[in-house]
Specification:
alpha+beta
Length: 74
């Protein structure tokens, strides 16, 4: 099942930030929210860790938490 950006952010304890969401990054020990979660023009969920985790690292951890499926990125 495809998870929405809002659902991912909510399950990570995040909150609304501008047109997207911000949450603690699950790929590293995050003391303050550094993960940006949004929706691209094509409807894909976009993630960016401002602390330096790669997209692949974030997605791998989200998959382990059952918060990401291939449909999110493809």
């Amino acid at each position: 099942m495809r998870k929405s950006a809002e659902k991912i952010a909510t399950e990570l304890g995040g909150s609304r930030s501008g047109s997207g969401w911000i949450a603690k990054c699950p790929a590293h020990k995050d003391s303050s929210p550094s993960l940006s979660i949004g929706v691209g023009r094509d409807g894909r969920v976009l993630v960016h860790c401002f602390a330096g985790c790669t997209g692949a690292q974030v997605i791998q951890k989200l998959q382990q938490l059952n918060l990401w499926s291939d449909r999110n990125g493809r």
